[in-house]
Design goal:
Blueprint lengths: L10 H4 L26 H9 L7 H10 L12 E5 L2 E11 L35 E2 L6 E6 H18 L13 E10 L6 E7 L1 H8 L22 H5 L3 H21 L5 H16 L1 E12 L9 H10 L10 H18 L7 H9 L5 H6 L7 H11 L5 H11 L10 H8 L8 H12 L6 H4 L10 H12 L3 H17 L10 H4 L10 H9 L2 H15 L6 E3 L2 E3 L6 H14 L12 H33 L7 H21 L6
Parallel strand pairs: 4-5, 5-7
Antiparallel strand pairs: 1-2, 2-7, 3-4, 5-6, 8-9
Helix pairs in contact: 2-3, 4-5, 7-8, 9-10, 10-11, 10-14, 10-15, 13-15, 13-19, 18-19, 18-22, 19-21, 19-22, 21-23
Length: 654
């Protein structure tokens, strides 16, 4: 936390001081005064003429009007921040807190948001559409209706006040907030631009938590008591009126300090309250004012991705991105990059909308030949699209995931987060084990080795036809059947990570404790397994529990819970289906197959560990080479393993 209140021993006597925030001569007594608008003229002229400032005149005025010392903006030096796709130009200064607005979207909460791709998400809960790039300016463009934007921003502001409270007022805010100009396509009766935070929302919310809406035009006429100040109160004000509000609040705070000169507890409390407010009225801010893409032909097209890339890779401290949110941001970057590169096919816009799931996907799904009422079809489509073999697609994904070589396991995180957007209205306690199960590994290599497609399997007959093709050796049909079954079973709670009691459930016989993808892959190789999986798709869609294979046919297990089905499916993955219920020992061939699978899985894990080491060295700026004595055992072991594997494998085809 960047703002920490460490009380002095005699705080109740000494009181809280108004901190001098002037950058120049401090020989005269300090009184916080909002500079007149005339003091912003030179700053505006300088910024409008600066070659690295690529924002609108309206955005320049917002910066100058919001600066505590606008005179310092004239001649200010811009910094350049490197991001994956180019360079961001950044202007740093001290701003009035109320001249900034909190984030329109909070990327750290992507895994908790409700998405339009989920048929059970109401309009009030939906995540907003992704911002797009402005044609010429370093500005984020939002297309949602202004009422929806304001409602979302207010909810986020209230949430961070509650979930990440910070002590503000005894000290000024010292760690910079990061902001970017934003413009709104559907502003309605509100201003059509703002300076929106992309980092520092908790600090902003803490600064404004104790400010009440003044008895002025921004308070609803029917309000009896002062309301807590929310972003929507500020964002409905024209720029000049918003600045006048700052002046009014600062003036009233100084009035309270000067009027309460006594030593009584009430007087000291009033002075302290006013001093806290004044100390919270300003914040250091970095505003992104320009962008230069490494590819000049892209213009500002990748500016939104550049902004999010900067945020995700920042040192966030106590609010570091959780892995699901990181995967969500990375997934959106991948999809956007694939769309920009023309890698999403002829119906690219529909594919993009279905993959992202931020807008209503009904029409997009229909245009792809898929029934929008089926969540599992959308999830399966995401798996198919992001496991395709195209070299350019794989190159884009590898770059976004920061991997030297793209392995099937690397694709899992983004796929899971995009897929779960169809289930975002699930209660947290139900969604958490689903995410955990999928994160253990929901993919298998064949998905990336074959060019398979997603068919509109939206009724029982379509499932039966798919099963028939899978039984007849159609590999692509098996892949589609397997992914549909996996999604259906995991999201319904019948295939999750193996619980500690899994062996006890099945009579103390070892079950397969691999990821759900490996379990499905193994079960798919048996005729009984394909019967169980196909039947599960139909049953779960109908709201019924899946049936089990016994005595040569499918039977209902009325007393089984999800954990029972999970344990038995994992048992069957290890030992096969047996109508008598007795599990035979695996054959010699089966043992060899399992040993090969275990070896290849360990290689994938080792490769991922090497990628992590290289990424860590890159992040730490390490350029010194590892000494030979340290790495020699690894080189020798790899050489021996290569020779041993060559002795039992066919020669590589020429």
């Amino acid at each position: 936390m960047s703002i920490i209140d460490i009380p002095d021993e005699h705080d109740d006597i000494d009181g809280i001081e108004v901190i001098d925030i002037r950058s120049g001569d401090r020989s005269t007594p300090f009184e916080h005064r909002v500079e007149p608008v005339s003091k912003t003229t030179k700053a505006i002229k300088f910024l409008e003429g600066h070659p690295d400032v690529q924002i609108s005149p309206a955005a320049v005025r917002r910066i100058a009007y919001g600066a505590v010392e606008p005179g310092l903006l004239e001649g200010a030096r811009l910094e350049r921040h490197r991001v994956e796709t180019g360079w961001l130009s950044v202007l740093t200064y001290r701003a009035y807190t109320l001249m900034l607005s909190p984030a329109i979207e909070n990327d750290r909460l992507l895994d908790e948001a409700h998405y339009a791709a989920d048929p059970d998400t109401s309009n009030q809960q939906r995540v907003l559409s992704m911002p797009t790039a402005h044609d010429t300016d370093a500005t984020l463009v939002y297309a949602d209706a202004m009422d929806d934007l304001l409602a979302a921003i207010d909810r986020a502001s209230k949430s961070v006040r509650k979930n990440n409270p910070q002590e503000v007022g005894r000290r000024i805010v010292e760690r910079s907030l990061t902001a970017v100009p934003a413009t709104f396509r559907n502003p309605g009766r509100h201003p059509d631009d703002d300076l929106s935070l992309v980092d520092g929302n908790s600090r902003w919310a803490a600064c404004t938590a104790d400010i009440k809406v003044p008895a002025s035009s921004i308070r609803p006429t029917n309000a009896k008591d002062p309301d807590s100040l929310l972003p929507s109160h500020l964002m409905r004000l024209p720029l000049a009126e918003r600045r006048d509000l700052v002046r009014e609040i600062v003036k009233n705070a100084h009035r309270d300090i000067n009027a309460n000169t006594g030593t009584s507890k009430a007087a000291r409390a009033k002075r302290d309250q006013a001093a806290r407010l004044l100390n919270a009225m300003t914040v250091p801010v970095q505003v992104i004012v320009g962008y230069t893409d490494d590819n000049p032909t892209m213009g500002m097209g990748r500016f939104p991705v550049a902004v999010r890339s900067l945020l995700m890779r920042m040192n966030i401290g106590v609010k570091e991105f959780k892995e699901p949110s990181k995967n969500g941001v990375t997934a959106e970057e991948i999809v956007t990059a694939l769309f920009d590169a023309g890698e999403l096919g002829d119906n690219a816009q529909a594919v993009r909308d279905v993959l992202l799931g931020r807008t209503d996907v009904t029409d997009a799904m229909k245009s792809l030949g898929l029934n929008p009422a089926f969540r599992d079809l959308r999830f399966t489509f995401i798996v198919q699209q992001l496991t395709r073999k195209e070299p350019r697609l794989n190159a884009v994904m590898a770059a976004k995931l920061d991997k030297r070589r793209l392995q099937v396991t690397h694709r899992s995180g983004p796929i899971v987060e995009l897929g779960l957007r169809s289930y975002s209205s699930f209660p947290k306690e139900k969604l958490a084990p689903v995410r955990t199960a999928l994160d253990t590994g929901c993919l298998w290599q064949a998905l990336a080795d074959h060019e398979w497609t997603v068919e509109n399997i939206d009724n029982d007959q379509a499932v039966d036809d798919l099963l028939e093709r899978a039984d007849n050796g159609d590999v692509l049909a098996r892949l589609l059947l397997g992914v549909l079954a996996m999604v259906t079973l995991v999201t319904s709670g019948y295939l999750l990570a193996p619980g500690g009691s899994a062996e006890q459930i099945v009579g103390n016989i070892k079950v397969m404790r691999a990821g759900v993808g490996t379990v499905i892959k193994t079960v798919l190789d048996t005729k009984e397994g394909r019967q169980v999986l196909a039947d599960a798709i139909k049953r779960v869609r109908a709201g019924l529990p899946p049936r089990w294979w016994a005595d040569g046919h499918l039977v209902e297990r009325e007393k089984w819970k999800g954990s029972d089905f999970n344990a038995h499916l994992r048992l069957a993955a290890n030992h096969g289906f047996n109508p008598e219920g007795h599990q035979n020992d695996p054959t010699a061939t089966e043992l060899e197959d399992k040993a090969l699978t275990a070896f290849q899985t360990s290689l994938t894990a080792a490769n991922a560990d090497l990628d992590d080491l290289i990424a860590l060295r890159k992040m730490n700026g390490t350029t010194t080479e590892l000494s030979w004595t340290v790495v020699e055992p690894s080189f020798k072991q790899l050489s021996f393993m290569g020779n041993d594997l060559a002795r039992i494998a066919e020669s590589e085809p020429r």
